[in-house]
Design goal:
CATH class: Alpha Beta
Largest sheet: 4 strands, antiparallel
Enzyme class: lyase
Catalytic activity: 7,8-dihydroneopterin = 6-hydroxymethyl-7,8-dihydropterin + glycolaldehyde
CATH architecture: 2-Layer Sandwich
Oligomer: single chain
Radius of gyration: 15 Å
Strand content: 25-35%
InterPro entries: Dihydroneopterin_aldolase, FolB_dom, GTP-CH-I_C/QueF
Pfam family, one: FolB
Number of strands: 4
Structural class: alpha+beta
GO molecular function, one term: dihydroneopterin aldolase activity
């Protein structure tokens, strides 16, 4: 299956279990792997036959900078669902959300979740 990869999308959100995370917020980095058939776009050279990267960014921004969630797992799930709703040609998606410097004991560069969803899973 063909893929569109968008890496290192950065957003500022207020997700986390602790009140200070919800009040102060922090940066989140998102990587997306969108699986779809790109053969028609490759032959036609028309944006209407592909998935617009700018629109993908805006959907991701709306989710990550939107409603605060306790878990980045919930953010990733919502992001996948919104992508299926926005792009009818999207067949499957992998979402990675990276949360730098999580407020947990010890020293961490980041905590991340990765989910993979297929269209038949979408509600």
């Amino acid at each position: 299956m063909d893929k569109i990869l968008l890496n290192g999308l950065m957003f500022y959100g207020y997700h986390g279990l602790f009140p200070e995370e919800n009040k102060l917020g922090q940066r989140f980095t998102v990587d997306l792997e969108l699986k779809c058939d790109l053969s028609k776009a490759g032959q036609s050279d028309r944006m209407n036959d592909s998935i617009d990267y700018g629109q993908v960014y805006e959907v991701a921004r709306a989710v990550v900078e939107g409603e605060a969630r306790n878990l980045i797992e919930a953010v990733a799930e919502e992001l996948a669902q919104q992508m299926f709703e926005a792009f009818s040609s999207l067949e499957a998606i992998t979402v990675k959300i990276d949360k730098p410097g999580p407020p947990i004991p010890g020293y961490y560069q980041s905590a991340s979740v990765v989910i993979e969803r297929e269209r038949n899973y979408a509600k």
